[in-house]
Amino acid sequence: MADAKVIPFDDDRSRGSRGAGSRRRGGSAESAPAGDEGPVGEVQPLPVRGAAEDPAPEPDVSPAAPSAVEGGGADGGLERRVAAGLSFLRRRLTGDYAVDDFGYDAELTDQVLMSLLRPMYEKYFRVEVKGVENIPAEGGALIVANHSGTLPLDGLMMQVAVHDHHPADRHLRLLAADLVFVLPVVNELARKLGHTLACAEDAERLLAQGELVGVMPEGFKGIGKPFGERYKLQRFGRGGFVSTALRQGAPIVPCSIVGAEEIYPMIGNSKTLARLLGFPYFPLTPTFPWLGPLGAVPLPTKWTIQFGEPIPTDGYAPEAAEDPVLMFNLTDQVREQIQHTLYKLLVQRRSVFF
């Protein structure tokens, strides 16, 4: 706790060789070996005419002879991968692929974008996921998480966590700030990943379609806070996410993320540069901008993402979405649950990096 200074908040799958059930082309041309000769002087019985012949030896399907196995071997797997890749490229070049009304490209996300994010998730940050079973297997739900880290890598890692670990193979649609959709390249990639503008209208449409929606109510206040305030939750806006969940009767799933706070320890903020560039803040860290592009490499901290028990909202009347007292109480309940889990995970953490 001392290091945190917290305060009381992936078609080849079974490429399996058709191996186990495959057979050798043709049978063995050798006859069955004759029986061993008996003792000297012993009369051996003559073979009975018409009797069944000795069975042919079992076909050799051992891995030592891969050329004899139909459709197996590395060559077959490579051919399938090349064919799948060429087919994917053809669809991309000809436009023979689908996106939804928000620009989400499921094929590109599953086959390319997640594959690019996964090494960072598995090898660099070594993310440990807990409580993913608390996310509903179907229907709309709202995941509410804390936000930190100077750059919004925590949202992307949470998206990979749901995509790779949820037993129902659900996909998380993140609500992102306006800035994301005005940046070149970033705008297009965010849309392809299924992100959309953080507004009530888009959130309600996604929930009504039975989608899993992710929101980080702290916004820039959370992601751009100083290192000295790490793991202290900032204000959760005006509780608009609660109103959205109430209107759709969607459960709210609190999510706590530990590890993101330390990837870019923000020790200062150049407000002048931020205004000139049109950014909400311009971070100064021990490595950025002093080391140039190298300073933009995040520290390899160890992450934990925990999804808490869902808070139901389907038991309230339709007009409850307009009740400010109820909205405040539910917002505070979600915030307190996230903060309490953060404290617990920090106590259990052995090190920032291990």
Brief overview:
Helices cover 33% and strands 10% of the residues. It is an alpha/beta fold and 354 residues long. Helix 4 links the parallel strand 3 (172-176) and strand 4 (196-197).
Overall mean confidence score, pLDDT = 83
Count of DSSP strands: 9
Strand content: 5-15%
Helix proportion range: 25-40%
- How do the helices and strands follow one another from N- to C-terminus? HHEEHEHEHEHHEEHEEH
**What is the straight-line distance between the termini?**
15 Å
Q: Please outline the major beta sheet.
A: 7 strands, mixed
**Segments where pLDDT lies below 50 for 5+ residues?**
1-71
- What structural category characterises the helix and strand content? alpha/beta
Overall geometry = globular
Number of DSSP helical runs? 9
As a whole number of angstroms, the C-alpha radius of gyration is: 30 Å
Sheet with most strands: strand arrangement: 1-9-6-2-5-3-4
3D architecture notes:
The protein is of the alpha/beta class. The chain is built from 9 helices and 9 strands. It has helices at 73-94, 106-124, 153-165, 186-192, 200-208, 219-223, 240-248, 271-277, 324-348; strands spanning 128-130, 141-145, 172-176, 196-197, 212-215, 252-258, 268-269, 283-284, 304-307. The chain has a 7-stranded mixed sheet with strand order 1-9-6-2-5-3-4, with helices on both faces. The protein has a two-stranded antiparallel ribbon with strand order 7-8. Helix 5 (200-208) packs parallel to helix 7. The two termini are 15 Å apart. Residues 1-71 have low confidence and may be disordered.
